[in-house]
Amino acid sequence: MRTKRFHPLLMVFEVWQLLKNTFFIFIFLFIMKANSHSLYIKYGRIIFIIFLGLALLYIVLKWITHTYALDDRSFHLYQGVLSKTERTIPFSKIQNVTRHTTFFHQLFQVTSIRFETGMNGEDAAVKFDVVSQTEAKQMEEHMARALRGGVTDSEIIEQMEEDPNSSRIIHFKPTKRDVFRASFTSFSFFVIIPILTSFYLKIDEIFHVNIEAEGIFYNIISSWWLLTIIIIVFIIISVAFGMAWTFFKYGKYEISSDQDRIYIAKGIIEETAFSIAKDRVQAVEIEQSFMKRCLGLAEVKLTSAGGHEIGEEKSEVNSLYPFLPKERAYEMIDEILPAYRITPQMQRLPKKSLWVRLLRPYWIWGIVTIVLYYFKPEVWGVERAWWLISAILLFINIALRWINFLNTQYVLHDGFIQLKTGSLTTSLFVTKRDKVIEIEITRNIFQKWLGLASIEMVNRSKPVKHSGIKDVPVEFADAFYQWYLGRKLDITIE
Amino acid sequence: MYFEVHEPQNWLSKDAVKVWLIKETISNVTGFLVLGILLYLDYRFSWKDWIGWILIGLIPLTVIGAVWSWISPYFLYKSWRYDVDEEFLQLKSGVWNEKHQLVPMTKIQSVATIQGPLLRKYGLCKVAVETMGSSHVIPALSKEQAIKLREQIAQYAKIKEVES
To answer: Which ranges form a coiled coil (chain B) (predicted)?
Structure first.
């Protein structure tokens, strides 16, 4: 097992990060306060320069002392400038892999890769912020191969040269039609409005076009044909812009899988790739917003026990294409996760649970009404607007609960459970008995009278995922309890 | 119903009721004191109207809460059951809101016995169980029983299932 240093460009990357993070302090100390003779600023500058120097020194030392190695079973990370630590992370603990190639990475033909474990805290992932693209690929493949069956050290190098793409099946690549539909569903045409507004505000700041613009504006609306032309041009531009925006975001997408892993790659300027072992998928979620339901589209998400944030923001890398035609979505789950079976036959809630749901207290409405009653605001000159707003709010609340009741469905079949919930956006949650880590049944007094119960279960995710349905018939809750007691049928003891 | 017929069989220690009563009394007395001080301050510095209304509204709520908190320990004691076997930890509790929980042994990460001053006075311990998803507490068992339960859970939780 030979240990390796990280990619030398990692130092460049870290220096860049350092400069980015200290940029504002720099501006403040050296540009905004350039003429200041205050002692604070003077010492601040000295401290800043010392800090910067130490940070640069640390980056170099870190690169020299941090090394890593892979064997047939785990990652080994050696680090520490003064006190040395050695970490071993077995491949079997890796929940998913994310690769992220930013513009910076593309400049140098490198990438970043994170191997996520299910643990919490700083050390939850094995991460390589800069690594050559071939090496990232090799590491990912090596891990997958090692998990499949033992590889010995000598085999590693040999097998790394094999072409791994041969066994991969591509399940989905968006066509032009898909992108077109996606741009409709995501209301991308409106993206241009905030951009134009901020553009206008910036120009206005410099040139004070406000007054001149007003004159032009009156000229325009006074001639109807000019107005029509401008509106048409604006619509064309915003549609074109929206399409381009959607294309950059969702245009290049590829969902593929091989025998034991699923791969999702996307992005044109910034590429991200997500991969997860099939047996590590904790649950499958099919989400449909109101708009998507109208157009027959759906989003499929794979729940993983490892985190999947890229940089600071949490991105939806675990999502298969967000605008899949619904039938294709179901087909694809069948193709990439043969271990999951989704049945369309589900049970609906009985009438009585509607009453329990409607009679639950409307907390938010209550608080809003009290606040409205206290301030009694006038809206559009209507004096008694407060009770009207309150009434409308109550009506919307009731309607949403009603729709939620109609949408709610559930079923248990073999080792699977399917729960569908939601009012405007619905979500169908499917998981297996061995992936559920605990369950709970609750009954309040009203539910006891009416023979109802609420069920809840917990799945691994980051943070853990609670899902459940309120007011199911107690018979179903009972079946759920017994179903979970039969858990040992699905698990293997080490 | 299966989950009612086969509900867990073990009871908490009888002294749990006393412990809860003392605890509730302490927190009620503090609650009344805080409310009293706030009322006095409201009167003394003539705060805004609505603050006064809220405080007055809180009085009956606090009284009802106090009365209930002196009755509830008996019912809570009667409702609490737990059980362990090599596969599951089963918990049942709740008076108004009855709760049945089922936790697989293989998912338990740690188990501990904890004793505060009140519990020590009656020779009791609580058993806290941490899982990947949450934590559960069996609130009052006699010390020997608690330690026995802890050992038992630790024993069962040693078994690992193939993580997939």
So the answer is: none
The C-alpha atoms of residue A64 and residue A76 are separated, in whole angstroms, by: 16
Q: What is the pLDDT of residues A186-209, one digit of tens each?
A: 777 777 778 778 777 777 766 666
Contact A416, A432 (CB under 8 A): yes
Contact between A303 and A459 under an 8 Å Cβ cutoff? The reply is yes
Give the span between the Cα atoms of B89 and A457, in whole angstroms. 15
| Shortest alpha-carbon distance between residue A440 and chain B (Å) | 4
Contact between B107 and A437 using a beta-carbon 8 Å cutoff: yes
Identify the CA nearest to A429 among candidates A456, A399, A391, A402. Answer: A456
Helices A9-26, A39-65: axis angle to 10 degrees equals: 170
Q: Are strands A313-314 and A110-117 parallel, antiparallel or unpaired?
A: unpaired
Q: What is the pLDDT of residues A307-343, one digit of tens each?
A: 766 554 455 678 888 888 889 899 999 899 988 888 8
Q: Taking the model in full, what pTM does it have?
A: 0.82
CATH 2.30.29 correct for B82-157: yes
Nearest CA in chain A to B108: A437
Which of A147, A435, A437, A478 to probe by mutation at the B interface, max B CB count within 10 Å?
Answer: A437
Complex confidence, ipTM: 0.89
Using CA atoms, how far apart are residues A330 and A165, in angstroms rounded to an integer? 25
- Residue A464 and residue B133: Cβ atoms within 8 Å? yes
- How many whole angstroms from its chain centre is CA B127? 11
DSSP A105-162: HHHTTEEEEEEEES--SGGGEEEEEEEEHHHHHHHHHHHHHHHHS---HHHHHHHHTS
B99, B101, B161 ranked by CB distance to A491: nearest: B161
Cα-trace Rg, chain A? 28
- Judged by a CB distance cut-off of 8 A, whether residue A173 touches chain B is no
| CA distance, residue B68 to nearest chain A CA (Å) | 16
Residue ranges of E strands in A337-492: 347-348, 409-413, 416-421, 426-432, 436-443, 452-459, 465-473
Distance CA(B80)–CA(B140), nearest Å, equals 10
